[in-house]
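Hi, here's the filled form for the chain we discussed.

Project: internal
Contact: R.S.
Residues: 81
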Amino acid sequence: MITLPDPDCRYGYTVEQLEAILGDRLDAFGRWIDGQTISLCTGSEFDNQAKGNKPTGCGPHGSVVYGSDLRRFLAGRRSLD
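And the returned structure, exactly as it came back:
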């Protein structure tokens, strides 16, 4: 089993990390993850009390993939519908 680095984003693995981890398997992962939920790191989150966004100190990273999905792919398991 592959040992994964810690994600660069609090929500999951960034595109740059996926490129480094997956290499030539990146296209296959793209097909596997198609239709699955991913996260979007904008560098902020909504603060209900302030009625506005506040910085999170993370990102913005753009689209990030949950670690559980990356581990499922690397283990050869199917994606969850």
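Let me know if anything looks off before we file it.
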